[in-house]
Each structure stands twice: as structure tokens, then as C-alpha cells.
Design a protein that fits this description.
Pfam families: SBP_bac_11 (PF13531). This is Molybdate ABC transporter substrate-binding protein. α1 links the parallel β1 and β2. Strands 2-1-3-10-4-11 form a 6-stranded mixed beta sheet. Strands 7-6-8-5-9 form a 5-stranded mixed beta sheet, sandwiched between helices. The termini are far apart. It is of the alpha/beta class. It has 2 domains: about 120 residues, Periplasmic binding protein-like II (D-Maltodextrin-Binding Protein, domain 2, 3-Layer(aba) Sandwich), CATH 3.40.190.10; about 100 residues, D-Maltodextrin-Binding Protein, domain 2 (3-Layer(aba) Sandwich).
């Protein structure tokens, strides 16, 4: 089952945007994974104040953004929620050589609707199907979006995927999956820990063990379409203390050197 995407509330960014107008020299167009919405709001304000450059951010599932870049969308910087989609662009010659680096990491959590849900021990013995009852498990697209791919891998590792796969409600990106739980359309969901921090209407009931899924890494890279001082300034800013503080406030682990 795939539900229609829900746009997260209170975000100033486009969920998906194909930018048609030519970029100005002092503009930086960033395509970033949807799970970074709150952190990128802070980054935008801080970067613009520090540099006087303009930051334009488009948010969506990493797969959607990567495909738009392949089709010629004039993005300058790509930040993916997993290395796989960055690998696709790199193999296609779409990255500026030597600019790719690992920026962030994250963890994967099970969330429940409401603010008082009890903790759940996540392991092979967890009766997730029983917990769902007739309800749905909200996840990002399990074959395309990183959060969904990681979530499916974790459930597979625990021997639970086959017991719940018919009850999974897939959303176009992880913030849309979060919204399904926030609004009560699904009683449970699998999202990043940073997404759960962004909502006051869900409870983290458990964290998936790190060994149940590939390590969640967010790589960043400059795209090989133009080269401006503004792009270089933003790549430096991403590695700096102000960006690190913004990311860590939103629950990310900062891995960039």
C-alpha cells in the first residue's frame, strides 16, 4: 500500500522542486534528504547570515532528488540519506571529483502515535503484527527511499518483515511517513531518530539495534555542473562548528572532519 505523500507542516522548503531559472553566482541550490528539514532550516539562516550568499534548499527522498539531478535539475550540492544514491551519481560522472565526504549519521527508531506509548523491546521476539492489529506500519518507500530501505533491512534481519509486509503503508519520503503517525493515520512507523525529534505528537518506543541494518550515513558532494565561490563557502560551512551544532541539536551524529 502506498499512501499519498503528506507535506510536513511548518517547513519553508519545497518538498520537491525542479529549478528552472538559472542560478545566480551568489546562490547555492542544495538538494537534501527530507529527514534533514529542521536542520537545514537552521543551516540556511546561519549560512546566509555568515556569508551573505543565498541558500535555496529542496527536500525530498534521496532517490527522487538523485533522479532529478540525473535529469538535469540545476542543483549545486547534494546531501543524500544513504551512500547508494550518491554512488549512482558518482558513477555517472555527476559529482565534482574530490568533493564527496561523509557528513552525518543517524539511527532508526520505531515510533507510535501519541505521547504516552509504552516502550517496546525491539528484537526477533517482538510481535509487531500483533501490535499493529488492523492498523498500518508507516515507512518510506522500502525499495527506493533510504529510510525505507534501512527499515526493511532491519525487519528482515529480525525475521519480522514477512509478518508485517502486507500492513506496510509506504510514503514518498520519511517525513511523510512521520506525518502518517503524527496524524494518527498509522499507529506505528519506522523513521530516523531525528524525524521523531521533529514531532511533538509521537513517541519513540524503541531503537533498532545498529547491527540490524547498514550504518546510516549521509554523504555530501558538490555537483559537477558549475563552480562558484558560494558553493565552496557552503561546503566549508557544512564542516564547520555552526553547522555541527545545528545538526547535533536535531539529533544527528556529526562525522565530517
Amino acid at each position: 500500500m502506498i499512501l499519498s505523500p503528506v507535506r510536513p507542516a511548518a517547513t519553508a522548503f519545497a518538498v520537491v522542486a525542479v529549478l528552472a531559472a538559472p542560478a545566480l553566482a551568489n546562490d547555492v541550490h542544495v538538494f537534501a534528504a527530507a529527514s534533514m528539514a529542521n536542520a537545514m532550516a537552521e543551516i540556511e539562516a546561519g549560512f546566509e547570515a555568515a556569508t551573505q550568499h543565498d541558500l535555496v534548499v529542496s527536500l525530498a527522498g534521496s532517490s527522487v532528488l538523485a533522479r532529478q539531478i540525473q535529469q538535469g535539475a540545476p542543483a549545486d550540492i547534494f546531501i543524500s540519506a544513504n551512500p547508494g544514491w550518491m554512488d549512482v551519481l558518482e558513477s555517472g560522472g555527476l559529482l565534482e571529483p574530490g568533493t564527496r565526504f561523509d557528513l552525518l549519521n543517524n539511527s532508526l527508531v520505531l515510533i507510535a502515535a501519541g505521547t504516552e506509548a509504552p516502550d517496546i523491546q525491539i528484537g526477533p521476539e517482538m510481535d509487531l503484527a500483533g501490535l499493529l492489529g488492523a492498523g498500518r506500519l508507516a515507512m518510506a518507500l522500502v525499495d527506493a527511499v533510504p529510510a525505507g530501505i534501512y527499515g526493511k533491512a532491519a525487519l528482515d534481519s529480525l525475521g519480522l518483515w514477512d509478518t508485517v509486509k502486507t500492513q506496510v503503508a509506504q510514503a514518498d519520503n520519511v517525513r511523510a511517513a512521520l506525518a502518517f503517525v503524527t496524524t494518527g493515520e498509522a499507529p506505528f512507523g519506522i523513521v530516523y531518530a531525528t524525524d521523531a525529534v521533529a514531532s511533538e505528537n509521537v513517541t519513540v518506543v524503541g531503537t533498532f539495534p545498529a547491527d540490524t541494518h547498514p550504518r546510516i550515513i549521509y554523504p555530501a558532494a558538490d555537483l559537477a555542473n558549475r563552480d562558484t565561490a558560494a558553493e565552496a563557502a557552503f561546503m566549508d560551512y557544512l564542516r564547520g562548528p555552526e553547522a555541527r551544532a545545528a545538526f547535533e541539536r536535531q539529533g544527528f551524529g556529526f562525522v565530517a572532519e
